[in-house]
Here is the input.
Amino acid sequence: MSTTVTYQGIGASPGVAVGIAFVLDARRLRTPRHKLERSAAAAEVLRFKTAIELSDSQFEDLKKKLGSEGEEHTLIIEAHRLMLHDPMFIVEVTRLIKEDLINAEWAVRRVRRRLKHQFDNLDDEYFRERKSDVEFVADRVIRNLMGEVVDQELEVPPNAIVCGHDISPADAAMLVRSGSVGAFVTNLGGHTSHTAIVARAREVPAVVGLGKAVDALRNGDVMAVDGRRGLVLVNPGEQQLALFRETIRQQQLDEAQALKTAELPATTTDGHRVRINGNMEFPEEIPSLLAHGAEGIGLYRTEFLFLNRSTPPTEDEHFESYKQVLQAMGDRPVTIRTLDLGGDKVPGRKFEREQNPALGLRAIRYCLQHRELFRAQLRALLRASVHGNLRVMFPLISSISELREARSELEACRSELSRQGVPVGKRFPIGIMVETPSAAWIADRLAQEADFFSIGTNDLIQYSLAIDRQNRDVAYLYRPLHLAILRSLDSIISAAKSANIPVAMCGEMAGDATLTIVLLALGLEEFSMTAGQIPGVKDIIRRVSRTDAVAVLQQAMAFSSAEEIERFIKAEVDRRFYTGAA
Ligand code: PEP
Ligand code: MG
Here is the structure.
């Protein structure tokens, strides 16, 4: 009997799966290395360029095959094509061939290694993850130079647990499309790696960042995967298997139940109607958001348009994405947030570190200093507004002047478009993210000039409690139920109500069903969250009265410490909604 081995990785896409391991070919690419005669260099450069062309046409084929499967994979493949043709990559490889007189495979490998080091040194996790994309592209070129077969269709058994050192987004997309993947498991990757993104968008469980665990796996191993907790069990015992199977059964029941009631409105037992919207990063998430009962889009994080590219998207590229989302949502509201790029996240400035990026040139501050970039987005938004029910919001507003400046830039773009005879839709609401303590303090004044608020609790908590949201060492201090946060939320929501403007919340706090009662009590009437969180939050709202929620919060706010408040709320929530739960 084989013993069970348990691995802990990063839970990248929730859900539980049991299946047989299908280990993708983990052969390390053995790059041939030799010196060239000077007279052979020109022919070698030509061989390299031919491999680039071949790789490009393979990407084109892949795109066609995945054509009907949604925009996201297409975007990723397009990004890989851009990397392939990046002048820096081509010029550097060509230079190494000509000056160092080394073969093309070896030259590509050297450039790949250099780029990888540059990515390793980035502070931002999201951009650090992009190094694997550089590796996929370079490996493809090397394999083509070596005449290897690439992109063969993989025959994967149904419900297989697909395991790999790293799985390329193209492979992940193709495999998901075949419908036979039970889960993904990889050595590399983080929460924002592409495999994770593809998996989440398609609701396939995934555990990434397992170190070397996958190297020990064999085809046919029985595996159990918990994508929420980041757990991977190899050869689980009968009892463990039974537990996993029971969770899967429960998961299927919950999902079926959730989908059945997804369309129902979220109204409290005493008749308060709450609106539940969805948060999104990619247009491909829309079908899942709608299926889970989203009534609109509360947050579209447009900085994801910068995924894997070294140049900013053009006005037309912005426009196409916004049009696609607006059309897909029909007359439901779509809230598009202007770029929330941090100082360390912007192409071209990637290697210029700021001392303290969270307090640096980020979001609206960056856009107001880079007007061309901002104007391209604003013009695209204005043009796209003819295609649906648009709302635009500015991130990280910390003063009234920023809101005025951003609004006046938008108006300048509107006038410019009308002078140019470009059609623009009717005026749309212009709101702000309230996510800095200064915005919270002057919420009454901001409410005079903004058409709506959306509270970004992820940042509001970070800045109010002075804890870096990326820093593990202070993660224990990240407390949504800290009295300072509750008071702050209370005053933001009250300011919006006094000024008669809508107030929403799109930070993580809005999607946490254990906190729904608190937000209801504070008078929040619009929540925005990821697809999977919608049914749970709707369910709680339908089972509670607002009056009851207010009474609970009043008692909770009589305590002074976050621990006491948390303990009290948890007990109340468990008693009301989760009786009998483990
Ligand atoms: C927030 O800060 O709560 C938010 C929704 O924005 P992001 O997480 O993109 O900073
Ligand atoms: Mg934020």
The longest strand covers residues 16-23. Residues 276 and 527 are 5 Å apart (CA to CA). The first helix runs from residue 41 to 66.
